[in-house]
# Entry
Amino acid sequence: MTQGKEHPDMEQKAQPRSVAASLRASPSALWGVLLFSGMANLLMLTGPIFMLLVYDRVLVTRSIPTLVAIGLIATGLYTAFGLISYARGRVLARLADALETEIAPVLFRTEIADSFSGVRAGRYPLSDLATVRRFLPSSTATALFDLPFVPLFLGLLAILHWSLGLAGLIGAVIVICLALINIRLTRAGVEQATMRGAGASGVLEEARRSAEAITALGMVPNMLARWTSARDGVIAADYHAGNVGARLSAISRSFRLFLQSAMLALGAILVINDQASGGVMVSASILLGRALAPIDQSVAGWRTIEALRGAWRRIDTALARQMPRRASVELPALKGHVSVEDLVVIPPGEVKPVLQGVGFTLTPGEGLGILGPSASGKSSLARLLVGLWFPASGTVRLDGATLDQWDPDRLGRHIGYLPQDVELIGGTVRDCICRHAENASDGDVIAAAKAADAHELILRLKDGYMTRLGPGGAKLSAGQRQRIGLARALFGNPALLVLDEPNANLDQDGDAALTEAIRRARHRGAAVVVITHRATALAAVDTVLVLKDGRMVAKGPKDAIMRQMLRGRGASGVAAGSEESIRA
# Structure
């Protein structure tokens, strides 16, 4: 049974390794932006040339037809400038879209992996990608593309008169120095504000996830104080960086205006000394303003540029951390043969193993129960079996193939997994059960619900299978979430079923339904692994494996292992808490 369409991003293809590499993958767009930038900067000469002709031709000859002619030409050139500027903006927007289309799927997978691997650094890669995407079509980005053409306008000033070119060059150097000082003084503050902002967002996200608990326990004032403290740090760092940047930006802008007036004064001196015309005087001021405008815009938008640099760097880090999805042969559908040999498991970001020397085999139709006290490695073993983690040493084979030989998306369609903490993705109950597959049939959804004995429960909801749920299944009780989570695990008749504490929130009827669901899954040939500390969940399995401190201390037929545990023989390593739960 299929559970969803193949999506384009599921295909094996080379993954982007950096933002720069992705941009270089669209050379025509980059060259197009540079071409349009060059044409736009050339067309910006329309104003200075128009003023030069008006002062030196029209006013001297007093010719209205000449004024009309150059006016019409200027109108056409300004129209072309508008069209080219629009085209440049659209190319940058398309480049941003292409960048997001290529990188977003990889970053989405990174965010999903980071959420259970514990390596999240406080920022979300997709949020950083949105920062890059918003920057590309912005006026600050176009100013950066105009910077290479600053020498063009300074050269034209020198052509008008060497002193004008020298004055323009000195002014540009001073403005650039102010920009570099601005960068040096504000970079640390901007980075600190960004980091503190991520911390404040993290506090708010935690509060949202635990809204029910913090409200019931009277923790809202405490969480508000914690968030306010983090937010105050953001405001302080932001104010310092903004204050320094605003001062330097004001100085740069004031100096640019002064320089334009100084250029007029210098031009006037040249006119008085008969070394230049009035048109040269006015045109020189306009050319200088145009030469310094990209620098001034870059200084004014430096905080945006700093935010871009940080986002760019974090995206590159996330892309480098993402393991490439290697090309592989599409293996046959999973049948349920599981082999675990000399397993050593180290959680992501840790150095100490949580499982050592674990080994067992499982055949289709066989049921294995895993017992052990808290922190014995049971859930870690579950994550390993379903491909969330990979072993540090040893092997996990499914139908003879190691986990890295399976495409994770295709493998997931043949696995039923019920995690210890059941989270249901928002949508309808039907969507949750069918794993949000677009082409799932109603019959398959209902069959999975009936297999979990959740059909009647769902029909009693307000809109039945079309009841819309909040994130995490907010409208359901813990028991209802677990039953619907079990239906989701059973959807598509998976060949391997891994259930982690599947009866933690179930009543007696729920326990009976769970036992029957496991029996049916085994009867149709599925291999079933049940992780629990309650003996009632073991009713439908034949073999039991006992873990303690990450090591396997007992394994064998269920009845024999339970007798040994109850008598205290052969399982001395099992915590008393596990024995008490089995006696229950």
Remarks:
- The longest strand covers residues 338-345.
- Confidence is low (pLDDT under 50) at residues 1-12, 569-584.
- Residues 64-117 form the longest helix (54 residues).
